[in-house]
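Human: Note token order:
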Amino acid sequence: MWLQNVNQIGAQKYDPNDRPLTYAFEAEEIAQRVLGSEPNYIVAKTKAQIGKVYLVKGEGDKAETIMNQAYDQIVTIFEKTSTLAAKYNQNLVEAYNIRSESQERTDLLCDNCEKIVLIC
């Protein structure tokens, strides 16, 4: 995976130079410069990638925030029942899984999983 390196004993670790996050932010900036500020699929995809980098880094709050932004863009462009909405909903499930166990987390996971099942 491009987000991780393998150290001398074969264990994976996050890139110490933080290149994945830097590249993801650069991709988002370029996409917004080329495509404008209106919601679009490419910008949503770059936001989702930034969220995935935050997940790998263990920064769940940041991942959740940025993945919500990506999801909002997708449902603005398409609709909440599109298969793309299900994919971006799955990203949110991954972000919610980072949270410590609580009733709120369980409710969020259940709601999002139910939305995904209804779409499929």
User: Anything to note?
Assistant: Strands lie at 4-6, 12-14.
